[in-house]
Write a structure and sequence with these properties.
The chain is of the alpha+beta class. Helices cover 33% and strands 22% of the residues. The longest helix has 8 residues, at 37-44. The protein is globular and about 25 Å long.
């Protein structure tokens, strides 16, 4: 899974489409679901 790989590389947050939110907790990484691209850019910057 890409989120697990990102966590192993040291990422602490992941922004994903709301419909693709993982069902299980991803441990050390916070997964944030967004509905629109503008939401993702607001969170990232």
């Amino acid at each position: 899974e890409r989120i697990a790989a990102a966590a192993k590389q040291g990422f602490t947050h992941a922004i994903v489409p709301e419909g693709n939110l993982p069902r299980a907790s991803s441990g050390s990484i916070e997964v944030i679901g967004v509905r629109r691209l503008v939401e993702a850019t607001e969170l990232a910057f």
